[in-house]
Design goal:
heterodimer; A: about 280 residues; 6-stranded mixed beta sheet; 3-stranded antiparallel beta sheet; about 40% helix; about 20% strand; globular; B: about 300 residues; mainly alpha; 2 strands; about 5% strand; transmembrane (chain B); Metal ABC transporter permease (chain B)
Amino acid sequence: MNSLIKSMSPKGDAVDENLTAHPDNVPLAVHDLTVAYHRKPVLWDIDLDIPEGKLVGIVGPNGAGKSTLIKACLDLIPRASGEIGIYGKPYQQQRHLVGYVPQRESVDWDFPISALDVVTMGTYRQLGWFRRVKRAQKERAMEAIEQVGIGHLAHRQISQLSGGQQQRVFLARALAQDAKLYLMDEPFAAVDAATEEAIVQLLQTLNEKGKTVLVVHHDLATVKRYFDWLVLLNMRVVETGPTDEVFTTSNLEKTYGGKLNLLSEAARALQAATR
Amino acid sequence: MNWTSFDTWLVVTAALCAVACALPGCFLVLRKMSMMGDAISHAVLPGIAVAFIISGSRDSLIMFLGAAIVGVLTAVFTQWISRFGHVDRGAAMGIVFTTLFALGLLLIVRAADHVDLDPGCVLYGAIEFTPLDTIEIGPVSFPRAALVLTVVLLLNLAIIALLFKELRLSSFDPSLADTLGYSSQALHYLLMTMVAVTTVAAFEAVGSIIVIAMLIVPPATALLLTHRLIPMILIACVVAVLSALLGHLGALTAPSWFGFEATTSSGMMAFAAGVLFFLAWCFSPSEGQLIVWLRHRKGPRDLIPPPEIS
């Protein structure tokens, strides 16, 4: 049977290789991914296999291509080369399995819409074109917004929410997507301590339910506590694997280059100042 | 003041135009691309001229098609130039519409000089004459412009009613729309087509000044008065109708105060819309300047203290 497929395909070996590279039980498999903006590469030859049920941190310096990696996985930006498999298939066929939390600044928070209506958008995938939102979707959205602890703010217009509450709205919207794989772009950016704690608890709840969560993260001080799997990224994948093995000084130096010293000193100084 | 059925039809036509514009205008304003209406309404000129040159007739359907196609092309070119030329969308719009408008003027002057295709008429319209150009339906005769605008208005209403969820999603968060499988690109061009068709249908009757005003001012006024999208659309429609009515009343009465005969209704309608915006800005119950000033004067007395720290 295998040889038959090979003989039928013009690139028989490539087919076989892809089958092993994108098995159905791998939430996210990235193969040979290169992305460039105006001929300037941002991601170079990325190979990644994210195992199921992990809480994954994507860590790297500014301009390392962390957000770009997430956007490429969602087909939001064109890729120069490479393949991405979501549970073994291209994203277009697997939209229903993926939840997305974009950066908070990516939208206009003065838009005339309530928090609940934003969260309800998470359910639009099951609806399809022309179909109206019904009670089932509203109820699912209400559940999600209560899960992130801002049920009492559901009917507020979104500009009347604090930054942390807005971030929770985005998380609730992703929850309402009822996905198996979540991609989150800096959910911890500029949120208050209470929100940060709420997000961490939410991530752990998702983890306990067997979901896979990828989080673009900036704060090296909390990496070990939040994530059990890491991707160290600086245009290339510097290292990936279980946090305990990967989160080492030498790997971080490789990721951040000479800038790490400065960074960690700043982080330490900040920690000392806040505690 | 002498109000006749002529005035009634004029106001009805203008109100239909204003509402037809305000509907897609709400989404333009929310997408921060208000000037797209301005660009499209100018850029359609070469479409009209080319349609005239090719067909050799002033058949309005052919000119309408030519104009609508160029209108959508304006949106396409703007997108291309801003993406491949690395300039922001406002600049790209400026490049496209001035070039197309100039081309249109040249074509009209060179090729259609001897016929009645007046550039001035395109800009200011000829709303005073719309009630004279009528179509008989049964026993009643309607102004042709009013019928055309009714069709466009119903079309816009139907599209927004059918695709409300999709238009709102892609206006608020186009990336999410794309990840969920609702092509933000397709919805963008749908909206641009609505704007192009509305603009062309409207400016033939009433001129591009009102079109630009009604695409932007009523939605912007509504946004000062509400924080919800459906009420925003409804208020924008009311403001649009009021602008048409008050504008015409103003055109009839105001000039005599200054010793003039009469003034152009379309100009006064655009002006009335501006006045309504100013009133909303002053007296909006939530964030109007008056409320802000009163709050400021009252000082912190009416503020609710935050909860005690336990």
